[in-house]
Specification:
The complex is a heterodimer of chains A (637) and B (252). With 637 residues, chain A is an alpha+beta fold. Chain A has 17 helices and 22 strands. Classes of the chains: A alpha+beta (637), B alpha+beta (252).
Amino acid sequence: MKLDAKIPEGPMAEKWTNHKFKVKLVNPANKRKHKVIVVGSGLAGASASATMSELGYKVDCFTYSDSPRRAHSIAAQGGINAAKNYPNDGDSVFRLFYDTVKGGDFRSREANVHRLAECSNLIIDHCVAQGIPFAREYGGHLDNRSFGGAQVSRTFYARGQTGQQLLLGAYGALSKEIKKGGVTMYTREEVIDIVVIDGVARGIISRNLVTGELSRHEADAVVLATGGYGNVFFLSTNAMNCNASAAWRAYKKGAAFANPCYTQIHPTCIPVHGEYQSKLTLMSESLRNDGRIWVPKAKDDQRPANQIPEDERDYYLERKYPAFGNLVPRDLASRNAKMVCDEGRGVGPTGNAVYLDFAEAIERLGRDNIEAKYGNLFEMYNRITDEDPYTTPMMIYPAVHYTMGGLWVDYNLMTSLPGLYAIGECNFSDHGANRLGASALMQGLADGYFVIPNTINDYLASNNLPTVGTDHEAFAEAEKAAQDKLDKLLAVNGNRTVDDFHKELGHLLWENCGMARSEKGLKEALEKIPKIREEFWKNVNVPGSADDLNQALEKANRVADFMEFAELMVKDALERAESCGGHFREESQTEEGEALRKDDEFCYVGAWEFQGLENEPVLHKEALEFEEVKLSQRSYK
Amino acid sequence: MSEKINLKLKVWRQNRGEAGRFEDYEANGIDTDASFLEMLDVVNEEITLGGGEPIAFEHDCREGICGCCGSLVNGKTHGSHERTTLCQLHMRHFKDGETVVIEPFRATAFPVIKDLIVDRSGLDQIIAEGGYVSVKTGNAPEASTTPIKKEMAEASMDAAQCIGCGACVAACPNGAAMLFTAAKVSQYALLPQGHPERTQRVLGMVNKMDELGFGNCSNEYECAVACPKGIDVKNIARLNREFVKASLTSEK
């Protein structure tokens, strides 16, 4: 395998424009002869399906949910970035590009990030035209707020439900195309394998989640928009059904997997409170605009927050990073929360929490103002914890939230398996080792509305793909393998539930491959994961049958993939013996205990190639070059 | 502080194409900080280890926004706590020893698929008839071109919050989807972007609603009480006005 990023020639600001001119086009009358399969109906999948259908392609879109409107993009709270510079505070496409490259700790591809920043403004234009009720000022113009890692206000928002509104916009566009007949929507259909014929992706095998029936679907290209793999940790802010399976099957069919160790641990989530807990809930990062983060100065201080006097509190982010204060990027906020808790200064029943305090903001702006800005978030917090954040500081702790790693893609968003594309969170491309807040929605929609509809033409126009027919042996083999695996899971009939195994795996990863990692811990995890996997296949209990709606079987099939994926993730973490972005490598720190990035050794994208489960995967390194944003240690002081 | 409680459950079990029935389960040692769905997780773990088949229920985000979850709990959609989805209902609202009856949403247009899972695809079909602004990618003018009154944007957002869970349909004695449809029609009726298509939007969506077997509105207001997002019943009045206006002015 040879990785070619296909970055266009020319100055950074002109690459995308030039590239759009250079790609081959499919003439309008021929577009309807091409079928594209899109897997997933979140922001990236729905926007890509709708836009490709508008262009004239035939699109089949698949989701395991009962409706395309359920995808987890819907849960994004805070907002979406764009370089509109409406507040006149010095923003520009270049600044958004610069902040994103720097925020990603110099581990992303400059050309992709620049294109993302260029598309950002088009997204806002399009979403406003769709009738998305973004927040407005009294004059009727669009309002902006600020987010971590930026010193300008460039985040557009719809209360604390920006993801919901943007997803419903994309779902509307998708519905319009379904009605027109351009998109065929498959709901409650889970894609369980990618079919490769003559070295190119030509279709998928899917399972109907109501009847259990497997079916074969052929296409000229397959686009994965299947989100991230955060649920490998069991506890994360992801929705319960989020999984890595489609991406993992693609990897096993020849698509390289890039930077799997890059996971983002979001700083402001409701802390873990019990064994029965099924997921973690995020409190929007926008809360850090007005909330002040602190812990007691003394260790093991058991007093309630309101009895700790001002001079016995440590507002550690404001103290250590005066320029950015509570608005440092997510990785710094998370790592510092862990540090103070590890020092024994954490609060709450478990000691694994820090305060996010609004008392000062309420005094300054008034309760009404705070309620208007964050009312729904405060209500959600109150519902879950039974505490009132207007009078008692919130307690928060970092949690797994987003995965920057994903399928390796070139500039066209095509994976190393020809004909297979990956868009949105499921690719690795734009966020490097750390994603800035309000950039996930931007990337999902940039990829779906503006990038893939332009780049996929080039592949479809340059390749004369013969019809293969779903009775081709490659389809039959993939279907049989899928069926065999389901039957095997049902046949184990052991003594432990799927969740029980998933929790064990997740806990191991959180401890050994979470916010802080060490060579010793990673090696230990590498020894344990195959043992957990082995026991899973000997002792898992999956009730029910394969020809019925069977949620335990769906979960087991996904967890079986996590069991394999986890190993690659830990291998990648072990290989990357530097601290960067979302992760802190204990052996690589400065004298003050700050993260030490090692550009001489690790300034590359680590893309893994599958060699069969029994063999070690091969690591390919795509060197990263920085022409516009000079490589430097990040400083937010 | 959290404590542990024990509950008796009566849960609706139904296989595809068969008649359903209630079955009894015990939920023991449930932490009052757990969510209702986490309580069901605990029960399902026990059922599985006991050789049974776990209770099927729809869920995904578990933070009250995806709209997947929803069941009748003691006869109430999403339980009796106001403005809450089932995943955000916590066990501290239940009493130790209480019997809890759990059923799927009941509505003609929502056939049961299995246990607590119903088919709500009718809601997608209603949206497909015009629950959007038909703008192709690339057509949009610069976002700041048209200022929109803040009050209008806010009112539109109030309506746009609908999560499509279907509680309004299940709570309505007629099984109507009026609040659901009204929310979408209102979102666009309140914004200039929605105006070019307002006639065909309301006619198309209302006709589809009727065609799919959703009932009529008889002003019971149960929908607004059941709505986890607090969507106001005034939106139904707006839907009716839009519908009358459209019926009178439509050239078709």
